[in-house]
Amino acid sequence: MSSSAAAGPGRLATAFLAELDNEAKTTRACLERVPLDKYHWQPHEKSMSMGRLAVHCAEMFGWTKETLTQDELDFATADMTPFEPKTTEELLAFFDKHIEKAKEILGSTSDETMFTDWTMRNGEQVYMTMPKVAVMRTFVLNHIIHHRGQLSVYLRLNDIPVPSIYGPSADEGAM
Q1: CA 134 from centre of chain
Q2: How far apart are CA 70 and CA 66, in angstroms?
Q3: What is the largest CA-CA distance in the chain?
Q4: How many structural domains comprise the chain?
Q5: Parent domain of 148
Q6: Dihedral of CA 79/96/60/115: which sign?
Q7: What predicted TM-score, i.e. pTM, was given to this entire model?
Q8: Would 175 be classed as within a structural domain?
């Protein structure tokens, strides 16, 4: 387990907290619009279903914990059972729980911890080793943004209004 500063977040964590807040609001707006009757819908047989993609977007903020409080994630020993919400409210509660935990962890992460290495592996096979700050940027935040973009396309393809993300969408908002 990596050390964290008890006095509060380092400068990097403070920047990530502001970004996480912004991305969480936008992601939640997308998740709120995913209808339960479309959970099994897929745009292509190789694509995730809308429900699985929504859960994936909701769970990824939780990866902050594994990234900043551990030095590795080993798929050979990790529980990778996906959450299966029965209602939109359950999906949003799952999402909110991960956001709050991510903020709590970031709020006590030092810059020193951000520069320690983190490894993703499956037993002996190492997929990557990078400083935790790079994992937070790529594997956590950029990954969320990527899949949220996919989810917004799923919404559009199902004629569900797309929320404003980084500016107005065709459905809402004006500059």
Answers
A1: 15
A2: 5
A3: 51
A4: 1
A5: 24-157
A6: negative
A7: 0.90
A8: no
43-60 tens-digit pLDDT: 999 999 999 999 999 999
Do 110 and 16 contact (CB within 8 A), yes or no? no
Position 52 in a domain: yes
What the block records as the tokens of 22 is: 């912004």
Mean pLDDT of 145-164: 97
- Tokens describing residue 166: 């980084």
Q: What integer pLDDT is reported at residue 91 of this predicted model?
A: 97
First to last CA, the chain: 45
Residue with tokens 């937070």: 136
Spell out the residues 6+ positions from residue 70 whose beta carbon is closer than 8 angstroms to its own.
1, 2, 118
Contact of 81 with 47, CB cutoff 8 Å: no
pLDDT band with cut points at 50, 70 and 90 for residue 7: low
Q: Mean of the pLDDT values across residues 13-26?
A: 95
Interatomic CA distance for residues 70 and 93, integer angstroms: 25
CA distance 69 to 77: 17
H-type alpha helices, 32-109: 50-60, 63-69, 88-106
CATH number for 31: 1.20.120.450
Closest to 100 (Cα-Cα) out of 21, 35, 11: 21
> Cα separations (Å) of 149 from 31, 109, 139, 154?
12, 28, 15, 9
